[in-house]
Amino acid sequence: MEWQNLLFASRVTENREAFCKKVLDVSDRLGINPDWLMAVMYKESGLNAAAYNAQGGAVGLIQFMPATAAALGVTSDVMRRLSNLAQLDYVYKYYYPYKGRLNSYPDLYLATFFPRALGWADERVIESGTLSATTIACQNPAIDMDKNKQITVGEFRAYCYKGFSADVVERLKKKAVR
């Protein structure tokens, strides 16, 4: 794939060519469709490396939570100041442990949102011992599409495609070329 053909490439405002080429490289190393990575970053941050969510302190291209940034060896403040190119190194480092399990765009996005749910059945409610289903749903009202204060894996998968045109959805349903 040529870098210019990536989904949302035109939305990249800094280092467009270098950034898109690096997305292609990162995606190749992870064995994923590069459009998946672009779509996750577009939905999470609008492809803005300096994006910040005051509600939970998430920062950057894929909205790294403070604990996640720390686990990757960097603070949220430092992450937020990194260029989009430099952040892609941390994006790769974050997804690398899931390599081989990222078989679809929703899988990649789920690894971003709630990685322990990778492989769960669609009807299973997303929750953990420390985060109740209600807390997760209240913090993510756009994903709780039926507004029942819980998010199922299937509901999350449907949310992944929400807001995209039919041609974008078609591209996101394509597997990676390996």
Describe the structure.
This protein is mainly alpha-helical and 178 residues long. The chain contains 9 helices and 2 strands, in the order ααββααααααα. It has helices at 16-30, 34-45, 66-71, 76-81, 84-95, 105-113, 133-139, 153-161, 166-172, and strands at 52-53, 58-59. A hairpin with a 4-residue loop joins strand 1 (52-53) and strand 2 (58-59). It is globular. The chain starts with 15 loop residues before the first helix and ends in a 6-residue tail after the last helix.
Secondary-structure map with pairings?
Elements lengths: L15 H15 L3 H12 L6 E2 L4 E2 L6 H6 L4 H6 L2 H12 L9 H9 L19 H7 L13 H9 L4 H7 L6
Antiparallel strand pairs: 1-2
Give structural attributes.
178 residues; mainly alpha; two-stranded antiparallel ribbon; 2% strand
Strand content: under 5%
Structural class: mainly alpha
- Please describe the biggest sheet, giving its number of strands, its sense, and whether it closes into a barrel: 2 strands, antiparallel
Question: Would you list the SSEs in sequence order as H and E?
Answer: HHEEHHHHHHH
Number of helices: 9
User: What is the total tally of β strands?
Assistant: 2
Report helical residue fraction.
40-55%
Radius of gyration: 16 Å
Apparent shape: globular
* Residue runs with pLDDT of under 50 for 5 or more positions: none
Distance between the termini: 12 Å
Strand order of the largest sheet: 1-2
Mean pLDDT: 95
